[in-house]
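Hi all, posting the design record for the shared folder.

TITLE: backbone redesign
STEP: 1 of 1
STRUCTURE INPUT:
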């Protein structure tokens, strides 16, 4: 069982064995992570201790996930046994929710998690003054189409108030996309200045001392870190956090018998969001989370944006977003800003443009005359989507969605049917 822990200080010497099992996060940015702040999150402002610890938990989950390759080719390739130790000020705060957190992480990633909480004193680091006075809401702004519509509707709804847009920057090519979107939204909807906080946080390729990490690229848990960082910002003034995602993708009905191991992401699943909020709150953290589009398809969201700003403006804004799930374009000498056009994110995006009537100006590699056939063939889930659309939705598909009590099976069935109708447009 891979076991990982975190330390706040770098030793004078790191052995290969220690490098394989220990992550270092120090205030001086010399550890295992690229981060603008230390383990006390001082640069974000006076974040309450429980939310600092929630971020540490998310960092450890993300780092362990990223550093433990899956057993590709085995019958249960998606399941790993992962043991992590999280440094916190008061372990007794987290111990009552530990087992439920382990189960929730398993729901998210498909792995078997074991958590331990170790008492540790947070290193001293400078705490920045809070700079977002007057903000009424925090919105996660990934650079994707759904979060862009969330930011657009938030600005429209707040009118004379403002919000804080929090962006996580993993791949550096996404940072200018995020900034451009925020600028466009500010020009489309009149209102006060928007606060935009981009946070670059990622695990380094090598440990201090030059030992390379193992790499796993599926990283189903990365957006948990994004969520925890958003909650950290929101916790300072106890603001609500929006995590905008269309309800069809959030529910993610099984499209093939092995879909849990290929297309699935559950960070915005309604049960995951509710249980994360409940457990974090029980541990003392601020965790007011809302997905305002939990009952809408992506095409319906696109249509709502067009109704608000017009078809041309919606086309310009949404075509500038980034939905592609793949980040390997550069290594194949392909434009890093392009979309493959054949992954789940791209196919759902293309269907949503068609369903809403919003003109799609996205650069898809699949549409290029000199398209990289082998690269696209390896990335494509088009056959799975076509099969799912052809066979249609079954009652058993809804019965396995793990809905929270407030989400009726009737609502889920109707939403999934509408989502499938949009996907059908790809094959018309």
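Okay, here is what came back for every position:
SEQUENCE:
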């Amino acid at each position: 069982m891979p076991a990982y822990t975190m330390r706040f200080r770098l030793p004078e010497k790191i052995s290969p064995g220690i490098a394989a099992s220990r992550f270092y996060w120090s205030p001086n940015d010399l550890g295992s992570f690229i981060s603008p702040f230390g383990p006390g999150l001082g640069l974000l402002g006076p974040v309450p201790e429980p939310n600092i610890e929630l971020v540490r938990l998310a960092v450890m989950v993300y780092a362990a996930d990223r550093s433990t390759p899956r057993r590709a080719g085995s019958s249960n390739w998606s399941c790993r046994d992962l043991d992590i130790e999280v440094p916190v000020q008061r372990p007794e705060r987290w111990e009552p929710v530990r087992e439920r957190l382990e189960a929730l992480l398993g729901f998210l990633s498909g792995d078997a998690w074991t958590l331990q909480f170790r008492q540790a004193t947070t290193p001293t680091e400078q705490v920045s003054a809070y700079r977002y006075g007057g903000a009424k809401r925090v919105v996660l702004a990934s650079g994707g189409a759904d979060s862009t519509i969330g930011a657009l509707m938030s600005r429209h709804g707040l009118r004379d108030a403002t919000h804080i847009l929090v962006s996580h920057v993993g791949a550096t090519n996404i940072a200018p996309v995020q900034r451009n979107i925020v600028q466009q939204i500010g020009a489309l909807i009149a209102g006060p200045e928007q606060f935009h906080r981009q946070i670059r946080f990622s695990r380094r390729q090598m440990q201090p001392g030059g030992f390379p990490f193992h790499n796993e690229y599926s990283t189903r848990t990365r957006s948990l870190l994004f969520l925890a960082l958003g909650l950290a910002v929101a916790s300072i003034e106890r603001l609500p956090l929006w995590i905008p995602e269309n309800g069809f993708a959030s529910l993610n009905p099984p499209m093939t018998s092995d879909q849990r191991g290929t297309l699935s992401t559950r960070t915005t699943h309604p049960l995951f969001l509710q249980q994360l909020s409940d457990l974090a709150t029980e541990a003392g953290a601020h965790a007011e989370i809302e997905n305002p589009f939990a009952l809408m398809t992506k095409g319906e969201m696109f249509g709502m944006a067009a109704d608000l700003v017009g078809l041309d403006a919606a086309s310009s804004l949404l075509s500038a977003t980034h939905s592609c799930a793949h980040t390997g374009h550069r290594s194949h000498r392909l434009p890093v800003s392009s979309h493959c056009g054949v992954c789940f994110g791209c196919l759902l995006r293309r269907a949503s443009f068609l369903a809403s009537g919003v003109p799609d100006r996205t650069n898809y590699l699949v549409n290029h005359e000199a398209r990289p056939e082998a690269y696209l063939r390896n990335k494509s889930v088009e056959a799975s989507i076509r099969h799912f659309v052809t066979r249609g939705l079954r009652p058993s598909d809804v019965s396995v969605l793990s809905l929270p009590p407030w989400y009726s099976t009737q609502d889920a069935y109707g939403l999934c049917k509408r989502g499938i109708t949009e996907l059908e447009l790809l094959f018309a």
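COMMENT: The two ends are 48 Å apart (CA to CA).
Let me know if anyone wants the other runs.
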